[in-house]
Amino acid sequence: MFTLLRDLRRLRRDIGLIRPDRGRSLAIRHVDAGSCNGCDHELTLTSSPAYDLQHLGLGIVASPRHADVLLVTGAITTRMQGPLLTAYAAMPQPRLVAALGDCALGIGLLGDPTEVVGPLDAVLGVDLRIPGCPPTPDTIAAALLTLIDNPPAVIPQR
Ligand code: SF4
Predict the structure, then answer these.
(1) pLDDT below 50 — which residues of the chain?
(2) If we measure between CA atoms, which residue out of 130, 152, 144 comes closest to residue 46?
(3) Is the shortest distance between the CB of 106 and ligand 1 below 6 Å?
(4) Cα–Cα distance between 6 and 127 in angstroms, integer?
(5) Substitution site in 110, 116, 136 for ligand 1 pocket (most atoms within 8 Å of beta carbon)
(6) pLDDT score of 148
(7) CB atoms near residue 125 (< 10 Å)
(8) CATH architecture classification, 25-149
(9) DSSP letter at 7?
(10) Helices 38-45 and 137-149, axial angle in degrees (round to 10)
(11) How far apart are CA 101 and CA 58, in angstroms?
């Protein structure tokens, strides 16, 4: 499905049609709050030529100050709760939060529960949920593109 969507976008570009996203783009700041790295690995694959998310307007940025979306992997550990909230506070408004993977969604937490705060929505409001353990690059790419193609009607102001 994602491949079809990508090829359709490329075809529109190649024949000179106006892009359906009208040039919009989103910058994503990824934070690993306590994952096993499985979700992070799959996320990295979405930057490969097979998915080419940058070309579709979705890019990973190094600083939360440049980010529109905070993308979180892993259950929220007590050690990462503070840095996660600091990154969120540094983002400009409007800002979105996405939970990537079952751990971030609170389904099957990893590790010692005394060292885990809980799922992401115990700490921040979640605008996009991407289930899976880990979700495939296809699933991740398609879910992130919905933020451009069908953005939330009202972007939360927190
Ligand atoms: S959801 Fe699965 S792959 Fe992702 S961090 Fe948790 S255990 Fe690892």
Answers:
(1) 18, 20-22, 154-158
(2) 144
(3) no
(4) 23
(5) 110
(6) 83
(7) 10
(8) 3-Layer(aba) Sandwich (3.40)
(9) H
(10) 60
(11) 19
DSSP 143: H
Cα(40) to centroid(ligand 1), Å = 9
List, for residues 51-97, the tens digit of each pLDDT value: 878 888 889 999 999 999 999 999 999 999 999 999 999 999 999 99
| 30, 31, 35, best to mutate for ligand 1 pocket (most atoms within 8 Å of CB) | 35
What pLDDT score does 133 carry? 95
Give the dihedral of Cα atoms 45, 140, 109, 120; nearest 10 deg. 120
Residue 16's pLDDT is what? 56
Those residues with Cβ within 8 angstroms of residue 135's Cβ, 6 or more apart along the chain or in another chain: 39, 42, 100, 101, 143
pLDDT at 149: 77
How many angstroms is it from 133 CA to the middle of ligand 1? 5
Count of C-beta atoms within a 10 Å radius of residue 40? 16
**Which residues, 6+ apart, have CB-to-CB distance to 126 below 8 Å?**
97, 98, 99, 120
* In contact, 148 and 11? CB cutoff 8 Å: no
Predicted structure pTM score: 0.82
